[in-house]
Amino acid sequence: MITLTSAELNTWIAALLWPLTRILGLIAVAPVFGNTSVPVQVKIGIGVMLTLIVAPTLPALPTVDPMSFPGLLILVQQLIIGLGMGFAMRIIFAGVEMAGAITGMTMGLSFASFFDPQSQGQSNFISQFMSLLATLAFLAVNGHLLLLSVLAHSFSTFPISASPMGGQIFKQIADWGGIIFSAGVQLSLPMVAALLITNIALGILTRAAPQLNLFGIGFPITLTIGFVVIGLALPYLATPLERLFQQGIEMAGQITMPAVKVP
Prior knowledge:
Largest sheet: 2 strands, antiparallel
Number of domains: 1
Helix content: over 70%
Protein name: Flagellar biosynthetic protein FliR
Structural class: mainly alpha
Family: Belongs to the FliR/MopE/SpaR family.
Organism: Sulfuriferula multivorans
Order of helices and strands: HHHEEHHHHHH
Number of strands: 2
Function: Role in flagellar biosynthesis.
Shape: elongated
Pfam family, one: Bac_export_1
């Protein structure tokens, strides 16, 4: 007859519950995995499958009852780590969406807003198009697999322990948030520059021929120039997007670096 002690049962629960919490935290907010169109059952299934793969390779876990207060603190710590890693990658997609928003507003499409199920807010269709393009590029370069690889490696660089992680992770994410604006401006710069030249030309034309209806001819010209420049710039977006994805994956890995103590 097989008998199990409470200590052995708690060890088995902790060996699955703590890594599952970190993995589900990343899946909840990471691009592609955290999309609202992905059913919750699929997300939980992916998390459980990854946990069963990662659990046998984990370092020694702290001997703490997972239902005790210290065990719950470890659970919250793992959730914060997973959310931080997924959010570091999500910030890259926010920068891409901002590039689309800047382009759309410059083209005069600020009124053409739709409900975005990903961000649960309003965004113009240029922003949604850029988001879909970034998602396809992310899958094309196997970014989702690289992100899962960084997640699995994080259990070695930042093992599950009862020691506090400090506030460094929050500062890193806050500093990393600045890339939303830099990436958004850099990706939208060709379109904004072309539309700025177009608006200057329309202004000069209006001064030369005041009888022209600027609102009648300006909007179609601005839209046409904007779509043409977007079409010309699309083939060249692969390189900056791949670089941004690489930076996001590196930042997701750096979040777990504070656990490495430098002598």
